[in-house]
């Protein structure tokens, strides 16, 4: 009888310890699941597709179902084997994968455009390193059959102009089915995809090839927009896409002096805004920018590269949107652009991802609370006056 009572008394503290340990495990697990999984749903759920004036027009009837839902993101910069630490890779790739997959599940876009610099070390990658980078990208950015993914080339994918080679360009094109100077048309909307790295204007082989393709494409688009009552002989043999002003997509922004006129919470920091941009490095040259605007007369230009947001108006009232980096390695508040687009109109909305500083703040707060709970459980926390009383009594005893 006594032994049974003694065993019962010993088992109670053990049960309390196990119960307390389980509570701690549940607390830590809840914080991890929230910060690494549910927070993406909580934040992206607040994003909504913008309204566009009417739908696409077919005769006299509006067809709102023909509005194209397009997502634009840029500069994912998947780390490579040279500069990428394994822990940094693990953290950044998990963040981007969760953000992308959550956005696809909640928003269900028709098409997603990634505006270059998919990889951080594509310009240096050996064949084996390239294959590893591609494998990781395909895992992170997998997409359903209902969504199309279009990837545009950036300088970190094939190198700056002086590093760009035919081998690197073809390697990129083979994986992503990207062709320089390509036109894609979805729901009556024309998108022109430009290899902006090849817009150097120095007559290099790849540069000449790019310009020839773009001039031919410009001719096709111009023919499609001519009035049917005034056909021209030089357009008779041209395959005409839908008569819709194109949207120009590329990695480098068109020429601007700096980011001084850019505003918003995800614009460049104040100390960087007034730094002049270098042509053919930070932005396209003035000559290349004028060519693209003259050839295509786009209704919208969307670019990346600077890692910060900016909206500028080019001559002729042509707007350009620079999309910030999608990676937390490059900024605290990544985002992507949501576009509702018809052949005649468009409306854009920016969707921010969770701020990394807020995630860290949650972890710090949870860690502090965890320490308090552990100290309280072991009765190591005492009210301040008890602590002072003990100090006084010890002093008197001495």
UniProtKB/TrEMBL annotation:
Q: What CDD domains does the entry give?
A: MPP_MPPE1
What InterPro entries does this protein's entry cite? Calcineurin-like_PHP, Metallo-depent_PP-like, MPP_MPPE1, PGAP5/Cdc1/Ted1
**May I have one GO cellular component term?**
nucleoplasm
Q: Transmembrane stretches, by residue range?
A: 20-43, 361-387
Entry annotated with the keyword Ribonucleoprotein: no
Q: Which GO annotations describe the biological process of this protein?
A: endoplasmic reticulum to Golgi vesicle-mediated transport; GPI anchor biosynthetic process
Q: From the Swiss-Prot or TrEMBL record, state where the protein is found.
A: Endoplasmic reticulum-Golgi intermediate compartment membrane
Where the record annotates domain Calcineurin-like phosphoesterase, the positions are: 69-308
The cofactor required is:
Mn(2+)
Q: What is its main location?
A: endoplasmic reticulum
Source organism, top-level taxon: Eukaryota
Protein name from the UniProt record: Metallophosphoesterase 1
